[in-house]
Amino acid sequence: MAGSEAVSSGGLQETSWSRADEPAPGLLLVAAAIGLTASADFLFYGSAVGWTLGAFALLVLSVSALYNRSHLRSLAGKVSFALTLGLCGALIEYPSTLAVAMTLVGLAAFCVAGHAGVKSRELGWLRGLGLFVMQYIPRVIADGARLGFAVIKFATSPTLARAGSVWALPVGMSAVFGGLFYLGNPIIASWFEYSGWPSFDHLPPLSRIVFWVFVAAAVWPFIRARLVVRQPRGRGPEPDAAAGIKVSPVRPALFSQSSVIKSLMLFNALFAVQNGLDVEYLWRGALLPEGMTLATYAHASVYPLIVTALLAAVFVLAAFPPGETENPSTLISGLMIFWVAQNVFLVMSSMQRTALYVHEYSLTYLRLGALIWMGLVAVGLVWIVLRIVLQRSSSWLINANMLSMLGVLYVSCFADFGAVIAHHNVRHCREVDGNSAILDLDYLRYNIGVSALPALRWLTARGATAPPGSILSDRAAGFAASAARLEEALALSADDWRAWTYRWHRLRAAGGMPGAAGGLEWPVVRP
Length: 527
Known about the structure:
The chain contains 24 helices and no strands. The protein is flat. Helix content is 69%, strand content 0%. It starts with 26 loop residues before the first helix and ends in a 15-residue tail after the last helix.
């Protein structure tokens, strides 16, 4: 039985309640967890976080790959390993929150890549990630209990009991005598103190012990890489898991061919009016009605229009549900494709609205994220059309959208969006071009931070040569002071080698080059 077989990697035996297909962790795995915990203590405890986070993620990925070499035999395992390896490089470049989150997803994807119970199902990778998250804490608790029972069983074994009975008396009494000598003889006490013999004063603080436990529990599921996947027995093929739509008696009447044709004709007419107004005022620059500014027109309806596009996607999925066997007529297909094309144009107009609003009020993280999200909405609409035209399943649609989103997030891990925002705001501020928003120095200093340094260096040098009396010349001292504060913060980061990042290393190198602050056209996204 599996409960009585010893694990070859370490000699710890499974308890009687262990699953037959899930062996208890051995000493090799425990040693790996201890080694990773010790590495985390050396890299992180009491120190700032920098490139060390990428190095630690690389260690976790390497240990997981070495312990679960079978995962590398599948294509999914190789791809997830390679992509996660790249994300470790992104953490070394700069440990942003997005890079940390994507690295965790990559590690989880590698852990579930080799499970047959996951690979055999449609959208199994998505289900596997969900199972990994749900079983994360239970995995730590179950394996901790299993290890505890294995240690107790080993400690109460007859062999260890005989050895303990032989050494218990001499070791115990010697410890008692040694303690008495320590208390009664100052010379012996000085020997202990001189030798650095550990005492309660030398024990690590409670916070450090809690840190060890937290790290060991956090990395354990990634190196253990086990899932409990229940396979259905005696059932036919599963329906499309992504569909979630059951045909009801209401749907044939609500989404009849006649109803869909009328709906698409009305929708196309309404969207044509909206898109026509956008062409006139957003793209051609026609004069707005009196009392309305372009910024007001651009900002007022960005989010409602995006909600409109999402509702359009829901309608298309409801009108053409997963598993539909009857192909839509040529008229319906043409009206639908034209309507989705109008939705895509609507999203593009929303992006133009945001761009016009940014021109008036500067670029921020939220506005840049909204632009990226709008682009993903447009791509999702295109995927919906392709799904219907190519007669693909809803699982194909989910995979296409998830791959698009993950691809954008993956690339974003290597981009310095703070530098992108600072670069745009500096080059398109009223102090420089005369017709944009006033530069918000507080946002550059406190929301973006050190990444804004290249832009501020350029602006400081430009302000030093600005004509006296100009707005740029008047604010030059403030620009120089803000740049100096960020230079100080950047210099302080060099004091701790653990806080080093390749991104900040480039900033320090650029600041040390003669004339770097003057005519430098800073590339905001660098390889």
